[in-house]
Amino acid sequence: MTQAHILGFPRIGAQRELKTALEAHWQGRLDETGLRAVGAQLRREHWQQQRDAGLDLVCVGDFAWYDHLHNATALFSAAPTRFGLPRSIDLAGYFAMARGTEAQPALAMKKWFDTNYHYLQPEVDESTRFALNRDWLLPEVREALSLGHAVKVVLPGPLTWLWLASAPTAFDKLSLLSLLLNPYFVLLAELNALGVASVQFDEPILALDLPDAWLDAYRSVYRELAPVAPPILLATLFGSVAEHAARLSELPIAGLHLDLVRGPDQLDALLDHWPAQRVLSLGVVDGRNLWRCDLRAALATLRRAAQRHPLDRLWIGSSCSLLHVPHDLRQEQELAPELRDWMAFATQKLDEVATLRRGLIHGDAAIADALNDTDRALDQRRRAATTHCAEVRERCARSGERRAGRASAFAQRAAKQRAALNLPLLPTTTIGSFPQTAPIRAARAAYRQQRIDRAAYEATMQHAIRDAIERQHALGLDVLVHGEAERNDMVEYFGEQLSGFALTAHGWVQSYGSRCVKPPVIYGDVSRPAPMTLQWTRYAQSLTDKPLKGMLTGPITMLCWSFVRDDVPRHEVALQLALALRDEVQDLEQAGIGIIQIDEPAIREGLPLKQADRAAYLDWAVHAFRLTSCGVDDATQIHTHMCYSEFRDILPAIAALDADVITIETSRSRMALLDAFAEFAYPNDIGPGLYDIHSPRLPSPDELHALLRRALDVIPAERLWVNPDCGLKTRAWPETEAALQRMVSIAAQWRRQL
Ligand code: GLN
Ligand code: ZN
């Protein structure tokens, strides 16, 4: 029978119940029994939702207390020895690895492929050994079975788990593979005995450029596991696996899942190879975005497949886990009804999958109402005046062709900026935000809830700005910032003010652990009805004679951290964002702001998974940044800031941004990244982050000294800036001032010696 399924459901809960419970547990307000009860309740509800929607299978194993990859680490008892945990990991040990302990930093957190979800990176070395710890899965499987569900167990594939693990450089991780298969083997046999209908192995690494040794390993892995396991569905996601079609067809697996949203073109290649007696699961409902599925288009794809593959061997699914979309659209009562009508959150996507199955089996007439309703909504979306702005389109067409660039080369600009800004050697600055104190947050909330008026709100923000300026004066910083008191979030703040953006009230998606983000939605052409930062920036500049740095979020970060429309190419949306932000840059310059920072922390994470697609992305991403920043006078200094990731592999593109100053996160890597910049002969000014703002820990003067000395070894003093490694909004003032004080005085000491 044709089956309808999803690859996973959001675990955090419609009301973010899991977040609340986790934080209560960590603060000692909720004991383990209480926490477990919340988890069990959420799982029960989510399984029931899948069943009520008419799906044939419910997912088990997609729930996690912090992260699903970390669950596999616990399931296979693969804790790194540095945590000193007993062999069998319990909940406390699981959280110790996730959050760190007094003695040990947490496991590294990494981006899950090209999503904004973070996984906890396993650590392996030659001494790593594995053992099955049933507690981490089997009770949940029994829970679901006892509720009468048909269960599909979801697990990270062994190769994906191993590929994502960190290891000492000289060590070949594949040498651990046969050891890792042992607990899988035992587990699968037990799942089979329990009567599990299917096991879904998530193998997203198949969408990367994998070395041959890893590709070859698929054969041995699935040959070994398949004989004892329930029917295995190998799930590929986040991209096409067309080039592996022949290889995948040789695996002894019962089924293969394809992400047809990200890789629509792979279907034919797979239909050519995939054996007719085996299941082909077609992911046609987008698990990465919140737009309503075009049911007719999806049905056309399914029917095309059904012409070449037996209908009863076709499954219909979400493209990937629904982890990446918010829970339930019905909560969005404040969203414009027109817009809401174009969307589907996880709960609605369950219905879409089930509807498509009915349509495929019984024909259009069986789903006439759903088809009509979708047609109406999609037609309205296509014709909506709110999504198309002729002026924006024309402006994009005009500016798309020409290469944006500054009027003069960096050396000439630098000379003019030196004259205009009159900064000392090793200028000190910060990355933008200052502590978001309780009064600031209270005022923002009160204003949003209309408990205070605009004047009262502005007074509080101005007070915060004045306070930040005074403190920066007292510290002796050279380039000041206004502190971003008015910003709840660096993307949302601009999303609230740009046309073409909408904000949801409950559109939360898990970022990591208990942390959720609420990305804005780009649904229409983007433009800037009015200046967005001018008022605050100008006010801040009026309070000081020192240069004040204006603060913007760049076009690529706006794009990467939003839900983006799917009816216009991403590069086109980036261009629209760039032009809107360009106007803001120019307004700031006009208002006498001599330094403007355009943050692009997300530029690296927007990088496509496959090497072959990267040059094109970098090309339009760089163009968007340059379009944003390059309309200014030589004497106006453009800064950019990036953190979170490794830029080694994209340094040419970073240099091509041609920002006058780049501040980067280097403190946690002890400046290793700076070496890459030096080796590459990065030409413009650099501000390597001198200390880690993510921890309340005060950096010692010796440490700061050593790091600055290290930086001076590789970057000429004339091109070096002194700053922390990111914004300070999550810190409190006392630790912020203490750390900055040390930073400023170390810079002064070095300045005297140079
Ligand atoms: N200007 C922002 C801040 O200081 C930058 C944040 C970021 O890089 N993520 O908060
Ligand atoms: Zn940062």
From TrEMBL:
L-homocysteine binds at I431, G432, S433, E484, D599. It catalyses: 5-methyltetrahydropteroyltri-L-glutamate + L-homocysteine = tetrahydropteroyltri-L-glutamate + L-methionine. Pathway: Amino-acid biosynthesis; L-methionine biosynthesis via de novo pathway; L-methionine from L-homocysteine (MetE route): step 1/1. SUPFAM superfamilies: UROD/MetE-like (SSF51726). It is an enzyme of class 2 (transferase). One of its GO terms (molecular function) is 5-methyltetrahydropteroyltriglutamate-homocysteine S-methyltransferase activity. Zn(2+) binds at H641, C643, E665, C726. Zn(2+) 1 binds at H641, C643, E665, C726. Keywords: Amino-acid biosynthesis, Metal-binding, Methionine biosynthesis, Methyltransferase, Repeat, Transferase, Zinc. One of its GO terms (biological process) is methylation. Binds 2 Zn(2+) ions per subunit. Residues 4-308 form the Cobalamin-independent methionine synthase MetE N-terminal domain. The active site is at H694 (proton donor). Its EC number is 2.1.1.14. L-methionine binds at I431, G432, S433, E484, D599. The keyword Signal does not apply. Transmembrane segments: none annotated. 5-methyltetrahydropteroyltri-L-glutamate binds at R16, E17, L18, K19, K111, N116, R515, C516, W561, E605. Residues 426-748 form the Cobalamin-independent methionine synthase MetE C-terminal/archaeal domain. Catalyzes the transfer of a methyl group from 5-methyltetrahydrofolate to homocysteine resulting in methionine formation. HAMAP family: Meth_synth. Belongs to the vitamin-B12 independent methionine synthase family. This is 5-methyltetrahydropteroyltriglutamate--homocysteine methyltransferase. It comes from Hydrocarboniphaga daqingensis.
